[in-house]
Amino acid sequence: MGPKTTDNLKAAFAGESQAHMKYLEFADLAKKEGFPNVSRLFTAISFAERVHATNHHRVLFGSPQTDKNLDTAIGGENYEVKEMYPAFQAAAEQEKEEQAMMSIRFALEAEKIHAVLFGRAKGQVKAGKDLEAGDIHICSVCGHTVIGGAPDKCPVCGAARERFKKF
Fold it and tell me: Domain 3-61: what homologous superfamily?
């Protein structure tokens, strides 16, 4: 594929991915404000944006097997932990942006766990096995991730057990 087309598809993938997430957030807000049909519209179009992003991703990267996808995930999580979020945190601290510092800290702490969990999954997949995991709980406030039971209180943000979503 030509370099301009590659760059264009990468930009489209990023834009469609962001639209997908943004519209899900808009849907939640519309629902809270008492507009269920507007919420449903945002949710539906969010799905369409995900379809677009998925199609662009497949053209760009094909459909690698799970072990390669885990390598990609581990690399991305480690980049966020070692480079991206520390740099973002330093900038937010320098600019005294309290909400940004909290948001970045929440993400950084979760990404550390994600890298470990993906590493564990990679080991299992290399052995030809699926990951041995019970319930997976995610804190809906900060993203803290736990395999097994949710804690009474999130160790990162202090949210109550009820704020964890089970997968």
Answer: Ferritin, core subunit, four-helix bundle (1.20.1260.10)
CA geometry: angle at 160 spanning 140 and 105, to 5°? Answer: 55
Q: How far is CA 91 from CA 34, 85, 106, in A?
A: 38, 10, 16
Rg of the chain over Cα atoms, rounded to whole angstroms, equals 18
pLDDT tens for residues 125-139? 999 999 988 899 999
Does the pLDDT value for residue 65 go beyond 90? yes
Q: Provide the strand spans (E) within the chain.
A: 136-139, 145-147, 164-166
Per DSSP, the chain holds a count of helices (H) and strands (E) of 5, 3
pLDDT for res 50: 97
| List of residues 6+ apart from 47 with CB closer than 8 A | 20
